[in-house]
Amino acid sequence: MGDPKKPEAGRRVSGANAFALTNDESRITSDQPADADGGEAAIRVRGLVNRFGSQTVHDGLDLDVRRGEIIGIVGGSGTGKSVLMRSILGLQRPTDGSIEVLGADARSDDPRQRQHIQRHTGVLFQDGALFSSLTVGENVEVPLREHHPELPETWRRELALLKVKLAGLPADAASKLPAQLSGGMRKRAGLARALALDPPLLFLDEPTAGLDPIGAAAFDHLLRTLQQALGLTVFLITHDLDTLYAICDRVAVLADRKVVINAPLEEVERFDHPWVQEYFHGPRARAARGQRNPPRQEAD
């Protein structure tokens, strides 16, 4: 199928991409840096150091996130998973190291580099981090107002409603306040806002925390469906073993102030490290692994 001509920024397009904010910058460029295995890297971190006073959280951390994958970020308490995410997003200034996001220097003081990252990434913080005084629809409109003020108000509303539905919420949720939603619905509302600018790169911080198993499984399924349909790259911080086994292509383990392994789960399970062995070979991990690979029924 041929590549249709791209419309001008903010123009409506038909079909599955209706009301998408299409422009030349909204895609990962072809000159992305390669990762350690030669693949195209959406995120490339080298020699990252984060210190807070006398405490060193990261010391020489390296990480590659490949374009189009869901990567799970795991580690014990205090290993700096959220600090790593904030460093990549430019919300935390590292002590040392280099960070490239979608071809832009995340540590640069150039506002164009910062704007490039902000426009092409979406973030779902824990519990959604929605503005409590705004409706769900108004929350979704916030990044649209900031980065695309030229859009007519009716278009912003329609775009916000589209993202609300895309996140699996009913249309009437757009007019509700966050306090009127369940925990799972707030997560989906936060996801809708993260998708507002049609970013190629999503950051999710513990998206299934606090959800019941059915709600968590439904969110996992939604995330994998959106990732495949939209070609997203997903940076996913989680403690949820079911999520890791259900949707993650690779898992990066933070320990000893570094990423000690970044590989598919089958390789991570065999990695010789005390925390990795305890985490991936305990009873909960065995249960999650069993759900992913149920035992075969013997033929009669």
Can you give a write-up of this model?
The radius of gyration is 20 Å and the shape is globular. Strand 7, helix 6 and strand 8 form a beta-alpha-beta unit. The longest helix has 18 residues. It is of the alpha/beta class and 300 residues long. The strands form 2 sheets. It has a 6-stranded mixed beta sheet. The N terminus and C terminus are likely disordered. Helix 3 packs across helix 4, helix 6 runs parallel beside helix 7 and helix 7 packs parallel to helix 10. The protein has a domain of 206 residues: P-loop containing nucleotide triphosphate hydrolases (Rossmann fold, 3-Layer(aba) Sandwich), CATH 3.40.50. The chain is built from 10 helices and 10 strands.
Per-chain topology:
Elements: E1 41-52, E2 55-66, E3 70-75, H1 81-89, E4 96-101, E5 104-105, H2 111-119, E6 121-124, H3 136-147, H4 153-166, H5 183-194, E7 201-205, H6 213-230, E8 233-237, H7 241-247, E9 250-255, E10 258-263, H8 265-270, H9 274-280, H10 283-292
